[in-house]
Protein: DUF4190 domain-containing protein
Organism: Kytococcus aerolatus
Amino acid sequence: MSTSSEWTPPQPPAWPQEEHPDGIAVLVLGALSLVLFPPLGIIAWWMGGRARRDILRQPGRYRNEGLVTVGWALGIVGTLLTVVMVAIFVPLFLLPFLLLVFGA
């Protein structure tokens, strides 16, 4: 059995790929939004979206697309946590004030 073409490994890009400058920051902000301060998720979501657009507009230039995507997703989760916390805690703190002002 002979084949006319043999498998060749994929060639590396013509230029060296670089890390996106916001990649680490997006990941750190996204992770911190889950464990420390959920409103940081809003910043991670915004920065991650901007970095992902840069990566998609220039295919082959950046090599840390996965890192940016994980930070972006963590930012979305952190933002959702922020919304849930606000939805729960604002009424809890507002209710006693309203009861005090308007009476029970």
User: Anything to note?
Assistant: The CA atoms of residues 14 and 60 lie 9 Å apart. Helices lie at 23-35, 40-57, 65-102. Residues 23-102 form one domain.
